[in-house]
Amino acid sequence: MRELKILIVLIAFTAVTYWGIEPYAHHVMHPHTEAPDYAFSDLEEFHVVGDAKAGKELFAMNCQACHSLSSDDILPPMGHADLVAAYGVYPPDLSTAGDLYDTKFLANFIKNPANTAFDSIFKKHKEEELAKAKALAKSDEEVAKLQHSFEKTIEGYLAKTKISMPGFDYLSDQEIANIIAYMKAVKKETTPREATAQACGRCHSVNYGDLTENSSRDQLVGYLGSFPPDLSQMIKSKGDEYLHKFINDPQKQLLGTAMPRVGLTEDAEKKIVQYLEEVGDAKKDERNTLGVYVLIFMVIMAVFAYFFKVNVFKEVH
Ligand code: HEC
Ligand code: HEC
Question: How far is the CA of 263 from the centre of ligand 2 (A)?
Fold first, then answer.
């Protein structure tokens, strides 16, 4: 009977520790942020249906100068190293663009890359912050000050981030829709590794997965202002939850960061996190299964230990 009481007290304390402290620590260390906005609600709507055949020609005229599209044997006139030297970063091959990127994002990006990758989302988050601060402000003067610092921050930010792809705002919506239809018509389905190489590989390496960044290190630092970290261990250092929230909206976690939002669809983003998990935490499944076996082992051992103890104490009495 005594053992049972001790066990109940032990379980009660463990439960209090677990439910009282663990969720609290979790909530402090990983403050809640909303799920990423896969609808890209800050961007202009785009519903034009395109014609892939017309798009192929437009692609050759407007995009081929910098981008390859290997799934349709399209190569830019300049070689790899020259492209990196000219633009600071390698303009990615677009064979998988129709698969990886959201259509609305693509349309907005082609029209105005800088606004789509940076300015629009940055302003959105800064405005959310400003609205919160205004609600707490005590005087009109304080509000004016906040407004001023808001504008200064945006200015500083715009001066810092850049994207060397020119905008195509002179193309009509129909022409842009045609180019997107073409990229979708020739798109290649991607494995998680290819998705990561295509969407992130122009800036990041994943050394443990044998992916090297395909722009030169020095030029990337010159272009971005900082060197994009290797992604091999991100799943361990940041966790999958952080990555899910960060990848499609870096400004939300690191306001002002030089990493653009890349506009992935939800599926593509999941594939990339899956790949980072495969590379950085390949033994996760094994570990989880082993954990279950260890628990079963402990339960069986506990039963044996109990009977052993009863047996030993019988002799003591
Ligand atoms: C003058 C060179 C140049 C031309 C022309 C050009 N691009 Fe780009 N493009 C780039 C560079 C450089 C990047 C990478 C920019 C970066 O990461 O900062 C890029 C990136 C992209 C991306 C990746 C976007 C993302 O979110 O990761 C897509 C998609 C793209 N371009 C599509 C196009 C299309 C479609 C056209 C033709 C309408 C085109 N580009 C024309 C240079 C160019
Ligand atoms: C145009 C270049 C560029 C592209 C493309 C890019 N990144 Fe980054 N990324 C950066 C830079 C620069 C940083 C460093 C940011 C900083 O410290 O402000 C970074 C940082 C990160 C970090 C670290 C975040 C942190 O909290 O420290 C992760 C994770 C990451 N990138 C993942 C990705 C993934 C996944 C992709 C592809 C979907 C990607 N990045 C595409 C430039 C890029």
Answer: 13
Record the pTM. 0.86
From the number of C-beta atoms within 10 Å of its C-beta (0-12, 13-18, 19+), residue 24 rates as exposed
210-226 CB burial, b ≥16 within 10 A, e <16: ebebbbbeebbeebbee
What whole-number distance in Å separates Cα of residue 307 and Cα of residue 143? 72
What is the rounded distance in angstroms from the CA atom of residue 296 to the CA atom of residue 230?
38
- The residue contributing the CA closest to ligand 1 atom 8 is 165
Rg of the chain over Cα atoms, rounded to whole angstroms, equals 27
Say if ligand 2 is within 6 A of residue 39 CB: no
Average confidence (pLDDT) per 10 residues, the chain, 317 residues: 90 87 73 80 95 97 96 93 93 95 97 94 88 89 89 85 93 98 94 95 92 86 90 92 91 88 95 94 85 94 92 81
Distance (Å) from CA 73 to ligand 1 centroid: 18
Euclidean distance between CA atoms 33 and 123, whole angstroms: 17
Distance from the alpha carbon of residue 67 to the mean position of ligand 1, in angstroms: 7
